[in-house]
Specification:
Helices cover 33% and strands 23% of the residues. By secondary structure, the chain is of the alpha+beta class. It folds into 2 domains: 4-201 and 336-421, Zn peptidases (Aminopeptidase), CATH 3.40.630.10; 203-333, Alpha-Beta Plaits (2-Layer Sandwich), CATH 3.30.70.360.
């Protein structure tokens, strides 16, 4: 049941509707493209200025020791704290400011923030600047309604989530800004539909395989060993042996879409041989490199996941005396899943029922997001993803966010904050 004070906040969100949309447009018009990490600082300042107007204490956290930080592309995160009557409980709202490159196929300006047919278009409108706008204005509506929260609200706009989040949310957690002593709950407004609560995600193992051959003149390939052909053996073994094995493994996590409840392996990229000015040289390829993306399930121990890849290389070495390869780990992210019986999940679910008049669906994400750093580095157990936008639109041309979803998710986050923190 929605209380009198909560009704006041919902009405305030309706009043602020045009401002929410305008703020989202302003965010979209800052092209925070990653890679390489453009315009992080002006985007952080835009969010920080708004946080300051709401009464937050604002700090800019720069990951200066991160490998991707530079004077040209500084890794600037914004962090705000709005203290209540009590330090705890504390709700942390987080959104990543970076977006993937626009790519081809757009019919609108990808950084124009155009409004059409009740939608805001642009790169990041869905993933996840719409979520940032909705979360910020959830707090704004509470403040505009003259309501003081008993607990503490924090907000962060962090960088590099699209490339792992290591200079963003991971960095904040390493600095102790996300931790059990100061953080009770975390909501990350990723685009997973306004009537769904995301409890976590599958695991990720990114790895590189280098096959090593022997260079020779292209007219006499019998004098060399072609590393591209060696990689072909790896790919063939994966296709005939590993893919069938993965296809029968499934998780009991509610991953959406259902096809992603299986273990998967994708070849992200491959390159072999020498090139000069974009043209191959007349040589036998002495090295071939491929990058792989293995998504593993909570039921699969990571040690087993990695050993399966290592075993393929060992098998091929035993079968072919000329086979030589190296395996390198690039990134490992373990699966995470928040218990749906926790206060955060149940309070959000009750709020969705009250605001949207529907029972929420519990899901898990097919890909990872910054939940991994909240749990694995920050050690905060109660974390969910909830926000506006449709997951299948993320990274697509003509990406958009429905204005109705923007307003609905803002209302859910505002009332959830009030119910978790008290008024």
């Amino acid at each position: 049941m929605i209380t009198f004070l909560e009704h006041r906040v919902l009405e305030q969100i309706d009043i602020l509707g045009e401002d929410i949309v305008s703020f989202l447009q302003a965010l979209i018009r800052i092209p925070t493209v990653n890679p390489p990490g453009e315009a992080y600082d002006p985007c952080a300042r835009l969010i920080g200025n708004w946080l300051g107007e709401l009464g937050f204490d604002v700090n800019y956290i720069v990951a200066r020791d991160h490998a991707d930080h530079s004077s040209a592309y500084p890794r600037v995160n914004v962090f705000g704290k709005l203290s209540g009557k009590m330090a705890m409980p504390a709700l942390h709202l987080n959104g990543h400011t970076d977006v993937v490159p626009a790519g081809e196929g757009w019919t609108v300006d990808p950084f124009g923030g155009e409004i059409k047919d009740g939608r805001v278009y642009g790169r990041g409108a869905c993933d996840m600047k719409g979520g940032i706008a909705a979360a910020l204005f959830a707090v704004a509506a509470i403040r505009e309604a003259g309501i003081e929260l008993r607990g503490t609200v924090e907000f962060s706009g962090t960088v590099d989530e699209e490339s792992g989040g290591f200079a963003g949310m991971a960095y904040l957690a390493q600095q102790g800004l996300i931790s059990p002593r100061r953080t009770s709950y975390v909501i990350i407004p990723e685009p997973l539909n306004v009537d769904r609560i995301c409890l976590g995600h599958r695991g990720v193992y990114w790895f590189q395989i280098d096959t090593i051959g022997h260079i020779a003149h292209g007219s006499m390939p019998f004098l060399g060993v072609n590393a591209v052909e060696l990689m072909g053996r790896v790919l063939n073994h994966i296709d005939t042996h590993l893919h069938p094995a993965l296809s029968v493994r499934s998780t009991d996590m509610p991953v959406e879409p259902p096809e992603a409840r299986r273990a998967t392996l994708n070849i992200n990229g491959i390159h072999g041989g020498q090139t000069q000015a974009g043209v191959g040289t007349p040589c036998v390829a002495d090295r071939c490199t491929a990058i792989f993306d293995r998504r593993f399930l909570k039921e699969e121990p990571f040690e087993t996941v990695r050993q399966e890849i290592s075993d393929i290389l060992t098998y091929l070495k035993m079968r072919h005396t000329d086979f030589k390869a190296e395996l390198s780990d690039l990134m490992v992210v373990h699966p995470v899943e928040t218990d749906k019986e926790t206060d955060l999940v149940q309070t959000t679910a009750r709020t969705i029922r009250d605001v949207l008049q529907t029972s929420p669906e519990y899901i898990a994400s097919p890909g990872t997001y910054d939940h991994k750093h909240v749990f694995n580095i920050g050690h905060v157990d109660q974390c969910i993803a909830y926000g506006p936008g449709l997951l299948h639109l993320a990274h697509q041309p003509d990406e958009y966010c429905e204005i109705e979803h923007l307003i609905q998710s803002c209302k859910v986050m505002a009332l959830t904050a009030m119910r978790l923190l008290g008024t």
